[in-house]
Prior knowledge:
- Chain A has 2 domains: 2-131, no CATH class; 133-175.
- Chain A contains 7 helices and no strands.
- Chain A has helices at residues 2-15, 24-34, 40-52, 60-99, 103-131, 135-148, 155-174.
- The N and C termini of chain A lie far apart (40 Å).
- Chain B contains 7 helices and no strands.
- Chain B has helices spanning 22-35, 40-54, 60-72, 77-120, 124-152, 156-170, 176-190.
- The longest helix of chain B has 44 residues, at 77-120.
- At the A-B interface, helix 1, helix 2, helix 3, helix 4 and helix 5 of A face helix 1, helix 3, helix 4, helix 5 and helix 6 of B.
Amino acid sequence: MLLQFFLITLAIGAFAFGGGYAMIAPLHYELVTHYGWLTETEFSDALAIGQITPGPLMIMVAFMGYKIAGLAGATLGTLGLFLPSGLIVLAIGGSYLRFKDTPAIKGMTRGVALAVVGLLAAVVIDLARSAIVSPVDALIGLGAFVAAGPLKRDPIVALIGAGLVGLVRYLIAGG
Amino acid sequence: MARVKPRGNDIREDKNVSPVSLTQLGLTFLKIGALGFGGPFSLLAIMQTEVVERRKWLTADEFAQGVAIGTLTPGPIFFAAVIFVAYRLRGMRGAAVCGLSVLLPSFVMVIILAALFVQVESSPWVVAISRGIAAGVVGFFISTVLKTGRAVVTDLRGAAWVAVAFLALAWLKVNPLALIVAAGLLGAWLLRPVAPVEKER
Lengths: 175, 201
């Protein structure tokens, strides 16, 4: 399982063009949908932790790896996701720069960027299906949306706020 | 001596500029990794402040090249830009030192959080917080999808690409990694600018 997890992150690290957001759908597909190593909620937890810690969002793979296979999973997952990107920059960085304005590369970048938006939307639907099960959930989601979107608040504030509302709801309803 | 443009695959800094020590590089990127909150763009902005404005290790143009590489290579744009900058300044060893030191602070924090989380995850309080966060993540990512969508969808054809990718994953359950590679290959063919690329005058 550890090796399989490492190979999955390595493949995503090597082929998920289009920035960190491009890695979300492939990680969700493999770890939640395909292998079932993580639940939708655990995937959301990982996204939230990646967002509230400094550094790139994709460090969330350390959380996923830890849940799946402990410290070794966290370490190998992080290596798998980031190493290919670093090696590719070192190997072909200079020559890439010379081609970056060619029509084919521009078309490629655009095609990937558009696809990533659609893929991210599909993941959000899966997450919503498990997370939004009551009117209060919908209100929390709406609150986070308004805070991060129109109000331009720090996502950390939006996510911690959502967690606190969840806690308050439990204390009122269950306590 | 004037700076020369890097040739071929060599993206290293030329030798006539005083070298930065590996320790200094490592510490700087440790700081960027520890204090760089926010999304990809705020991370890049923080890094630019450190390496371009404050320390003047690179010009803004050189930094922009790093960002351009990041948008073309797989993986987080920020991380690719870190490797590019570090390699230019101190070659292979610089890239290794900075790649590790920029990830180290958040890696340690995530591990600590994950270890704590595993201890308490069945507590009803944590379950309740986690449920709230899951709902918040949905709202936050809807706003992310809309923001990135608004930035890249400029015409009907673009909207169609987004819709096809969405349906292929949500409905047909096609492997998204394959979809990304296919979108890149098809994009190179179908979405390349038809008019000749404008040349600098």
